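Notebook entry, structure prediction.
Reason for the run: the old model in the group folder had no record of what sequence produced it. Starting over properly, with the input documented here first.
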Amino acid sequence: MSFSSQVKAELYQHISSSRHCRLAELGALVTMSDRRNEEKNSYGESIHLFNKIKKLEKLLDLDAYSEEGRKALKLKESDGFLVADHMLIERSCCKQAFMRGAFLSSGSVTDPNKGYHLEIVCENELCAELVAYIMDGFDLEPKQVTRKKYRVVYIKDGSMIVDFLNIIGAHNALMNMENVRILKDMRNSVNRRVNCETANINKTVNAAVKQIEDIQFIEETKGLKFLPDNLRKIAELRLEEPEITLKELGEMLNPPIGKSGVNHRLRKISEIANELRRK
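New structure, fully documented this time:
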């Protein structure tokens, strides 16, 4: 079962306790599915969707496709489509119920192991604007795109998708997604740390190799006695201990010096080596 199917399976079982929220969800199911010109039992795409519509109709004691049902659901005709009126979603809880119905009718969400993408496909622009308006009200920052004859409202931010799942009441799916996100974040954090440490190690190794090359060049051309005492001591120590850090090099001197002091002396040695190469 896909992650989308898991979310919907959970939402099919979710029935609001208040009449106004049931009306809002049913209104979304009817307008988003937009099957008013077909037989009411023709929701072949999902028997579960059809069953939820019938269950809500029974609880509300109305026929969603009758004149009286449309009136109760605050539905109106616009360019050949049924559109929900804003009166249907005046309360915040009703907006949540409406989004639950919209997602059940025409929504989908990508498996969080593969990526973050949630979308609701709308058959007309008015419907898309209403969905985007509700999402905006919950700070979800939706985007829209036209795909063939449909208008798609979508979210690609993982944390916002989690918020959306919370809004529509898919709490089990939310927890599953959060677990995946935590594991992904941990992996990414570990990878970043490993990459950073690897880069630092490579940088340190390359610097040590260059230091040894400079010291050996001076030794072969002029001899280490050519260097001042403070530079000669650090040069001899670096040749003896090619793998230790600058801090450890400084601690082995008598008297000890800090990392910056060691770095300064090695830079002076490098400058001397470069000058000898030029000559």
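Summary: The two ends are 74 Å apart (CA to CA).
The old model has been moved to the deprecated folder.
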